[in-house]
Write a structure and sequence with these properties.
This protein is mostly helical. Helix content is about 80%, strand content about 0%.
Length: about 450
């Protein structure tokens, strides 16, 4: 749990460097403004979107631990090269390559969490994992702002490389559990013999592997999208993450422009806001999600919907012309409430997705998050800001309302949660009974 969270901490710290040194990058390269800076945030998302579903397919069939370890090594090296980028285009290409990082690690890491922890403990497990993402975001912005202010933006790109290599080594020592092990243990079922078998990645050649992957992805995606709770959740998450990504990327720059803060002070203020609001919110949300699920089986979709609506309302108020002390206080409160939704959402996704398809399920979740959140949102806000003469306050107010739509979709999803969850346990029990029947037949023979 902690180690997989550390993987995401390093990744989020790396992704957040641009936020801390955006102003310096603008002055370092000619003809680079808000829109071009927003492309740095979205560049990796294009690759992320392309690889996340195939990565989810692989996470359901092959070694998740080694996939994560090798990917972390790769993105650490790419980040180091970014420090030496001679042109803005080169930097943009290198940031795009980082999309392989989250695209591959996210489905595998979430699938592993679901197999390490049973249903009534997943909220806490995901809360620890996700809280380290928030910590990484805060550290990435704060440290890169301070390092950039003292040594330049290129030095800021170097600080994440060594931790990444260390994390990759530690991950490689982890054990990859049997898929569905936690669900079967939860209801007292035996692990089927077929689940314990391992398949080599290119056992029948690369061409056969690629053909099977295309067919398998299409089949798996159809199964995933037939789950009503998952369909509604994906739409809700798309609307929510659009706004979260938009505001989160541009807040440090907003502090600089609206409150005349230095780059370092704005980065530290953002980092403290994320750490003091986001991390406690995620930890409280994870524990609350586990407690409520024992009483209300719909809690893991209702709770995120209500939190999203409440958090958005707080942020809308915060973007009125208020003193900085009031604004940052409202941001901490809004971040706390919004962060409470994160572990419940991921635990809820695990609850309604068959164990043999959780990699694909989280791949679909990540794809939705990427396309409608990380990719589009910063660019939209950058374009709006440029249109309104650098007025980020107006841009934020325009992009906040979609969160209300996302919250409503999550509330509607509660109608299907119980049925979708019970279908998974029923399938496990039927498979367990079939396995026992086959064992008896073999014993008699």
């Amino acid at each position: 749990m902690w180690l997989l969270g550390t993987v995401l901490l390093v990744d989020s710290a790396d992704q957040s460097i641009v936020r801390g040194v955006a102003t310096q990058i603008e002055t370092s390269f000619h003809n680079v403004h808000d829109f071009q800076i927003s492309l740095l945030a979205s560049a990796s998302v294009v690759i992320n979107a392309l690889v996340t579903m195939p990565a989810g397919y692989l996470a359901d069939r092959w070694g998740r631990v080694h996939a994560i370890a090798y990917t972390v090594v790769m993105w650490s090296l790419v980040s180091t090269l970014g420090a030496a980028a001679p042109t803005f285009l080169t930097l943009l290409i290198l940031r795009a390559l980082l999309g392989f990082g989250q695209g591959i690690t996210e489905p595998s890491a979430n699938s592993l969490i679901a197999d390490y922890y049973q249903r009534d403990g997943r909220g806490r497990a995901f809360s620890v994992q996700q809280s380290l993402i928030f910590l990484g975001t805060g550290l990435g912005v704060a440290i890169s702002s301070l390092i950039g202010e003292t040594y330049g933006w290129r030095a800021a790109y170097l600080f994440v490389s060594i931790p990444g290599l260390l994390v990759a080594f530690l991950v490689s020592r982890m054990i990859d559990p049997v898929r569905g092990e936690s669900d079967m243990t939860y209801i007292g079922a035996e692990l089927p013999g077929a689940a314990k078998e391992k398949t080599k990645l290119f056992e029948f050649g690369v061409r056969r592997f690629l053909a099977d992957m295309v067919i398998g992805l299409r089949r798996d995606a159809k199964v995933i999208l037939r789950i009503p709770t998952l369909r509604l959740t994906l739409v809700g998450v798309a609307a929510i993450l659009f706004t979260v990504s938009a505001v989160g990327f541009w807040l440090p720059v907003f502090y600089q422009r609206s409150y005349h803060m230095t780059q370092g002070r704005a980065g530290v203020a953002f980092g403290l806001m994320v750490v003091t609001g986001g991390i406690p919110g995620i930890l409280v949300g994870g524990r609350l999600a586990d407690r409520l699920i024992t009483k209300y089986q719909t809690a893991r979709v209702v709770m995120p919907g209500l939190c999203a609506i409440a958090s958005t309302t707080v942020f809308l108020i915060s973007f009125m012309r208020l003193p900085f002390s009031v604004t940052i206080s409202l941001h901490v409160v809004g971040f706390f409430i919004g962060a409470m939704a994160v572990p419940a959402l991921r635990a809820g996704l695990s609850d309604v997705t068959p164990h043999q398809l959780r990699g694909t399920g989280f791949g679909a979740f990540n794809l939705t998050s990427v396309l409608f959140g990380s990719a589009a949102a910063p660019v939209v806000v950058g374009a709006l800001s440029q249109h309104f003469g650098g007025n980020l306050r107006t841009a934020f107010i325009i992009v906040l309302p979609p969160v209300y739509i996302g919250g409503i979709f999550l509330l509607v999803a509660k109608r299907h949660v119980v049925k979708d969850t019970m279908a998974i346990f029923q399938a496990i029990m039927e498979a367990d009974q079939e396995e026992q029947k086959l064992e008896q037949e073999r014993f008699q023979q």
